[in-house]
Amino acid sequence: xxxxxxxxxxxxxxxxxxxxxxxxxxxxxxxxxxxxxxxxxxxxxxxxxxxxxxxxxxxxxxxxxxxxxxxxxxxxxxxxxxxxxxxxxxxxxxxxxxxxxxxxxxxxxxxxxxxxxxxxxxxxxxxxxxxxxxxxxxxxxxx
Length: 143
Fold this sequence. Notes:
Elements: E1 4-10, H1 16-31, H2 35-56, E2 69-75, E3 79-86, H3 114-121, E4 124-130, E5 133-141
Antiparallel strand pairs: 1-2, 2-3, 3-5, 4-5
Helix pairs in contact: 1-2, 2-3
């Protein structure tokens, strides 16, 4: 399969996550991804984009220009990468340690486990800041 790319531009609002998941599921169906691959990438996109929509744009003084998010899904025979690009506040989720695992449900902390969950499904999770943009790349094996 030659390298292929799909993109989606979003306004980071209440509809963004659902629109992004619908877009990714259409790609998964078109490309015949396995249920495990589709689930892992969709779950990771949901987690990352929910956090971006919820927190990256909460201070208008830190957002240059209109708030935007762009998704770029690229794939070849071996890899699928999903890049999430936004112009929100700088934040590298790969540097934030997850809370410790609880020994019981009563001791469990709510929140903060998203990166751990994403790392469980993804082969690689990378972050860079490029000018005024955050770039979070989610990578999975294609097969």
